[in-house]
Design goal:
Length: about 650
């Protein structure tokens, strides 16, 4: 038969495990502790001699006076108002104030009373110095012990059991201590900080809050990690250099740890920090490079007080270009895109960020392939600078839709370039791609054809500049957002080939280089960016799985998509580069095409485009760009058995 008391206790705990004890119950307990302290104090005084009836009345008066004064300070200080389960030093301080101050008052009254003969108040009715000291010392101790006991009872019987994690904190400075305190307050997980790690040898072998400070090589080793069952590393140096952060993160990931980081203080909510603000390390942090230092003087000179048109303004690159342009005091930024919803989001963001400069922004919904609409935009705004980022960019889609790829990427660019000349645009900067080099797909070929067209257009009044770079981290439709979605769905992560590599650059970095290259361009230039070291997509997938802490996620190889390369190039075989004043920007020495031949070929392409015959369209593209050799595509049948030399081209080219 079930024990009724046990059942009652179980129900009581279940019912009140998340409740907070009423502050008035705590107040009553504190008053009872005062009564007990007074009785104990006076019992010590009369223990040996006994107590006479004449003294009882005096004791009652002393008791009531002390009780009234103490209760007043309980209420004034609010020593009973704290939540016991979260009691800390501030609560102890309130207890000390509520007990020490009444004691000081009684001592003061005694001192004042002793100055008179006869005394104003007979000493029998006042607490002696000894009684005052014992009473309030005992009361303070009992009140503190009471709260500690209630905390212990709550932790042992009422608190929901939390999962436990052993962690190490990298950084024994102020941020490390703040991170430690935040972890101790976490109500979801019970964190045990095993060690702090620091590179400062003056801190090593010391302790913070009883936790040892150790060197990297003593902690981030398999033996220490396994022995202490550590599952997580928290980087608590917000100003840590990127390369150092990458090295520590990679070392921790290789040991099977989950890695998180304390963000910069500027991102803390209201200047305070809690454990839920500790961030996951992102794959972008491991692929990024130290920030590139830019000489913004050139960009300011190029942009200030100018009307600037940005096409593809709602995309990853276009939107960042718009954000950066707004910092350089343009006369007007005209943002143009055909995507309605992303444009609405960009408009909402920029109007909130630059609420005092609404007259400096214009948002236009239009498609670059619509020549009449584009002319209307040029006629209305008369832009002096154009940043052309509008394009179709997804390789598999464009392989299936060459008509749209050519219409937008080639003839949309032609529309803008022709109008730039007609309306006296000073500089036209086109965003190209590494896929334009020795293209193996329709998308890359259309971008190369756009490059060829604008290269042939430069005049003394309008300078055309091309910027060419690889993938940008986190751009719409890129591999990283795809992997994140697949991780959220439980996997698998899909890679097209185990050996495929890509160059990566952050979006702000790429856009800043675009602005800088645009400022240095003098017409007909193609600028190539230093993309750093190429990254294996398979290795990136493994890192993202490690960062997620879900080591059971599978990586599945699905085969190259139509038109996809194993690796990308930034320069064609006949192209060379020369340095510029910026170490991350190279000037490509490329062949320049005869303008008449370009016009003839593109007019013929337009006629072929009107047939809407994919094979004929791609065949003409291969005629214009002989180095365009399809890969894993239905258009491979259009390629010659023996690839032609890039010198035997259908269009003549002049010396660079």
């Amino acid at each position: 038969m079930e024990n009724p008391f046990k059942r009652f206790t179980f129900n009581l705990v279940k019912r009140y495990r998340h409740s907070t004890v009423s502050q008035w119950i705590i107040f009553i307990i504190d008053v009872m502790l005062f009564v007990a302290s007074f009785v104990i104090t006076e019992a010590f005084r009369y223990f040996s001699n006994g107590i006479a009836d004449s003294v009882i009345r005096a004791e009652v008066i002393k008791f009531l006076a002390a009780l009234m004064l103490t209760v007043i300070f309980f209420l004034a200080v609010g020593s009973f108002r704290g939540i016991i389960r979260h009691a800390g030093m501030s609560d102890i301080w309130k207890i000390l104030v509520a007990t020490i101050v009444p004691g000081i008052i009684f001592v003061g009254v005694n001192l004042f009373n002793n100055q008179f003969t006869p005394q104003i108040i007979p000493s029998i009715y006042l607490l002696s110095y000894r009684e005052t000291f014992l009473l309030y010392l005992l009361l303070a101790v009992l009140m503190i012990v009471e709260r500690l006991m209630l905390q212990r009872i709550y932790n042992d019987y009422f608190r929901r059991r939390r999962p436990e994690q052993n962690v190490v904190i990298y950084g024994a400075g102020a941020a490390g201590i703040i991170a430690y305190n935040a972890l101790q307050q976490d109500l979801r997980v019970e964190y045990h900080v095993v060690a702090f790690i620091d590179d400062d040898m003056s801190k090593v072998n010391q302790q913070l809050n009883g936790v040892p400070v150790m060197r990297v090589r003593s902690v981030l080793v398999p033996k220490f990690i396994e022995k202490n069952e550590i599952s997580q590393l928290i980087i608590a140096i917000p100003t840590i250099r990127l390369m150092h952060k990458q090295a520590i993160t990679n070392r921790a990931l290789d040991l099977g740890l989950t890695v998180k980081a304390v963000p910069h203080i500027s991102t803390w909510m209201n200047g305070s920090f809690s454990s839920n603000q500790i961030e996951e390390i992102k794959i972008e942090d491991l692929l990024g490079r130290e920030p590139i230092k830019m000489d913004n003087v050139n960009i300011v000179r190029e942009v200030v007080d100018k009307v600037v048109l940005v096409t593809g303004a709602a995309g990853s690159i276009g939107s960042e270009i718009c954000r950066q342009l707004m910092q350089y005091q343009p006369k007007m930024v005209v943002m143009l895109d055909q995507a309605e919803s992303p444009m609405y989001d960009l408009q909402f963001e920029l109007r909130n960020t630059y609420a005092n400069r609404l007259d400096k922004m214009a948002f236009v919904i239009a498609n670059v392939k619509d020549r009449a609409r584009m002319e209307e935009v040029f006629e209305e705004y008369h832009p002096q600078l154009v940043y052309h980022a509008a394009a179709y960019k997804h390789v598999p889609f464009m392989e299936e839709n060459p008509y749209e790829a050519v219409y937008i990427n080639v003839f949309g660019t032609r529309n803008l370039a022709d109008l730039a000349i007609k309306y006296g645009v000073q500089k036209f900067v086109m965003i190209s791609t590494d896929k334009a080099v020795n293209p193996t797909n329709v998308m890359g070929a259309t971008k190369r054809m756009a490059e060829i067209y604008i290269q042939s257009r430069s005049t003394d009044k309008t300078h055309f500049v091309t910027t060419r770079f690889g993938n940008v981290l986190g751009s719409n439709g890129s591999v990283i957002p795809l992997f994140k979605k697949q991780l959220a769905a439980g996997g698998p992560l899909t890679v097209t080939h185990k050996d495929i590599i890509r160059y990566f650059m952050t979006i702000p970095e790429a856009c800043n280089l675009v602005l800088e290259a645009g400022a240095m361009g003098e017409g007909g230039d193609i600028f190539v960016f230093d993309m750093g070291k190429p990254v294996k997509i398979y290795d990136m997938a493994k890192k993202m799985i490690q960062l997620s802490g879900r080591h059971n996620i599978e990586i599945k190889e699905i085969g190259l998509r139509p038109g996809e390369k194993l690796y990308e190039e930034l320069l064609a075989t006949k192209e060379n580069t020369i340095p510029t004043y910026h170490p991350k920007i190279m000037h490509a020495q490329v062949r320049r095409y005869d303008i008449n031949d370009v016009d003839n070929e593109y007019n013929e392409l337009w006629q072929v485009l009107e047939t809407m015959d994919d094979m004929k369209i791609v065949a003409k593209m291969k005629h214009i760009v002989p180095e365009f050799l399809s890969n894993n595509s239905v258009y491979c049948q259009l390629d010659p058995a023996t690839p032609p030399s890039t010198t035997s081209e259908s269009m003549r080219y002049a010396d660079a």
